[in-house]
Amino acid sequence: MLAAGFLVLFIGGGARFAIGLTLKPMVEEFSWDRSQIGVTVAVFQVVSAASMYVAGTLADRMSLRLVLGGALAASGVAIGLMSLVGAPWHAVALYGVFFGIGNGAASLVPVGVMVSRAFPGRTGLANAVVSSGLSVGQLVMIAVLAAVLVTIGWRAVFVWLGAAHLLLLPVLLAAIPGRTDAKSPASVPPRSGHSVAEAARTRQFWLLVLVYAICGFGDFFVSTHVVAFAQDRGISTFLAGNLLALMGLTGLLGVILSGHWSDRSGPVWPAAICFVARIGVFALVMVDQSPLSVAVFALVFGLTFLITAPLAVVFVRDSFGIRNLGALTGLITMAHHICGGIGAYMGAGIFDATGRYDIAFVIMLVVSAIALVLTIALRRPSKVL
Length: 385
What we know:
Layout (H helix, E strand, L loop, with lengths): L1 H15 L1 H13 L3 H26 L4 H18 L6 H18 L2 H11 L4 H29 L2 H22 L20 H4 L3 H30 L4 H29 L2 H20 L3 H15 L5 H10 L4 H30 L3 H19 L9
């Protein structure tokens, strides 16, 4: 079960970052503005966010094999067809809408539900292990795809990604127990905790929504634009792509440490340290954008990139119980991804208007400071009914 969840996030995580890798060659070939790709990413974030909530709700009620298998198949077809785009609306439809639906459903939300039920005593660490698939996928797949991009071209990147999704499908179906397996921990329906309506009436729920919204705002601004930003500052295409891949390596360290830490002392302080680090690196690139500073910025931000991912189900479980773990985690993650789309689009719009990302870095520093304050306020959780 852990291996299946890891592989789903490995493939999906690498595919999600491909648009950042291919941003510059695509806009140069078609003479598009960066904001046109920014719109595509924004649509993807909104659609995948809604899909995460739906997938989380379905994971509370039906077979995870059906939810994750169907999503993986949809993702593979959509991302593969991205190799044929010739107009901005093609990218919006294929990547933004159809890939958004599949990638959102084959995400950490249903995987987290599956793992949390199977490992109730070590939920943080178990979710960190599967969440590390996002980091390892970013490290391995982006490194490989950066080489594909340089040698074959950006269209081949999407062909390879489509094939990877479809090749994983039979492995996934074999690894995840079906609904008929009554002994499977993943098939046992949760019983105790808040309903969605009850949780939404608590202060804790809205604090979590705001923290994860700000987190997503920064995450997808950086993941969408960091390669182009590095190239703008004089780093070669190949090295810039591998910088994005290396962010996955530092992210792997961050996610494992945060999961282990949350099992020992709760999820608040790992999340708080994440925002402290972000404040530091956004301040760094506000004053120095040399290649060395850009590399430090990328790698330290990468360390924080997935810290909050395994913590979402821990926050929800500790605050609201497990009866609607998928639905509530999906709602919070939906806020994360919708604001991620806004962050990606905002970065593109600021660059098109000013030719630089400086204003965006100031905004990111301010909202990271706000998120730090809100995270510390989460130390007083709501009682579970």
